Structures are given as C-alpha cells and as structure tokens.
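fyi for ur records
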Amino acid sequence: MRIEFLTAGDFPGDGKPKPVALPDPAAVSFEAEEIRYITLPKRVELKLASGMTSLGRVKDLADVLELIKVLRLPAEFAEQLDP
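which gave:
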C-alpha cells in the first residue's frame, strides 16, 4: 500500500507554487466526536487547486462536482474560496 504524506506549505496537484497551499491542519479543521475534519471550503479549494494543475488528479475535480451536487452547494459558496 502506498502512503502519501502532505506537508503544510506544499502546493497541491503539480507541486508548483500557486495561490493555494496546503494549510496547517489546526487552522482549517474542526473536531466532531473526537475526530478532526478539514472544513468544507478548504477541502473544496484544495481539490480544485489539485485537479486544475495535474492531469493525474482530475478525479479531484469530479469529487468537487459530486460535493456540489450532493450537498446542493449554492453559488455563494464560491465566495469562501480563494479566487
């Protein structure tokens, strides 16, 4: 099994510098039932940045589309993301 470690400050997708970087988990997460979760806006933002810059990560874009569909996210949700 392959395990990939992500480091705060690195860049998602192709690893090249971009406005969106991997954040400090403590700054963008919350706890529920003793488990830490990344916030939805940050999760979507990271998946978009990853999927837009790496053909090998195109599933990240599909994941975002599915989240929008299942959660019925309004257009205003985009205001919570990095432009």
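The first strand starts at residue 29 and ends at 32. thats all i got for now
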